[in-house]
Design brief:
The complex is a heterodimer. Chain A is of the alpha/beta class. Helices cover 30% and strands 20% of the residues of chain A. The chains are: A alpha/beta, B alpha/beta.
Chain lengths: 305, 274
Amino acid sequence: MDLKIKIGRTTYDNPVWVASGTFGSGKEFEDFLELKKVGAIVAKTVTLNAREGNPPPRTVETPSGMLNAIGLENKGAAELVANTYPFLKRTGTKIVISISGANKKEFVECADIVAEKNFPHAVELNLSCPNVEHGGTKHRLIAQDAAATERLVKAVRRKIKCDLIAKLTPNVTDITSIAMAAEAGGADAVALVNTYMGMAVDAETRKPVLGNIAGGLSGPAIKPMALKAVRDAYLAVKIPVIGIGGIMKGTDVVEFMLCGATAVQVGTVNLVDPAGQGRILREFETYLKRHRVKKAKDLIGKLKG
Amino acid sequence: MTRDSRNAKIRKELKKAQIVSNVQFCSDHFLMKLKMSGLPKRAVPGQFVNVKVTDQGTDPLLRIPLGIHTATLETISLLYKTVGEGTEILSSKRKGESVDILGPLGNGFDISRAKGKKVFVVAGGHGTAPMYWLVEKLIRQGHNEVECFLGASSKNHILCKEEMEKLGAKVHVATEDGSLGFKGYVTKLVDERIDEISASGENGLIFGCGPKPMLEALAKDARMIGMPAQVSLDAYMACGIGACRGCAVKTKNGYKLVCSDGPVFDAQEIDWKA
């Protein structure tokens, strides 16, 4: 069985990746998973300078999902390169570094720090964290503004040679226009969806539960909306689409691939079941066997009419 | 206590554990005993496990963090309060069924610091759950001067009084409504006692677990007389292994994680005003 898929110039061993912010650097999962069998580790987003993150509470459970407002807590790009790169390189897994910034300048400087000659395998541009605010765009987030998205991807494209993945927010009127803008800017792929903005309220105290008031909703609750967004983006762009949103089992991966995803990222499941990625990959292989699909990539976009 | 994360480096396991018993302990508390090999030997008091209460569907989705109440070589016990959907489901589980356990997690109490000191174990309400094992270990290791201070809103919410006495600990009780023991906050009782100790020139050490205001008061009292205090904190938690950075707590050195830097912290390290 051939699980390989290609995005940009890189061939990945399998299409089941782990999403940024749900997997740390991977070290936290060594007791539970063979990191080698992760399609790609998308490390937690780094920014040019360290960020303290949001005041707690930062997470709360909701029906079949969870809200988070972590606020991109991280120690900064240079620290990641110095202290975490050696570990990431040793895993033998494909590594994607997720970066963010307050504005274009910060994104470009951050990209310049994280991109080495042959590492990482790709850089994911987090244009869509709902818990931060971007500058130089007419909306709160870069990925809510097609022109700003195109400008930003172009600027990073000019600076580094690495494959670029633009991670998009579903909190938009029309995600296809943003996906097309990322493609026009030179992105090698688009990844969607980041979390849906939401909030939780405590009726007893009459206060919002999260310290940041609002947060991003993830988990199985968002899967139907994510499938639709992936399908829409797939029909709008030629570059690969990476599907994200509430994947808990092998057939979820199949569903995203049928809607047009070349690969998927599993996120919230890692927080529930630290061995989740391995289980999902095995279940995905079982599906392929059961349906006599020889190549995983043959599923991409094969939704029947 | 410096955070060397020594407990957090203990190998964690993810496994199905069979329920040996699951019985009502008092009004809204249940005691679940689980068959587990390996984990009990590696775990220390103050560490916790993350429990998945159901394999069916996706609601509830996240695991429930529960402090280890006590352990034998082949079992661990969890004393939990039914406060929501997850713990309600847990309380309906029968002997012979299984639950999915992730653990041991976090940094527990540093018992080695208790050597040669008077030990004060302070627990508020449900915060008593993980303290029983601590008292058990302390007494087994030969600390014969362990004093426990249990506080709760009323008599019905005082946990483990007889059990701790049976271990040989001296137990003081405070209830807010005065239905058992001293009427008022447990920290008032502690305050008086540690003042005596400090006046007599003896060294003491406080272990605490309970609601944040109680721990804050405890931290203040301990600071005033310069007595070290280790406190176990609670937080909204998701992964339990330091990956999501959700269970942040403000400390004097920035945000730290309850799941993997704690749950036990030096009381003076916490920024209580945050």
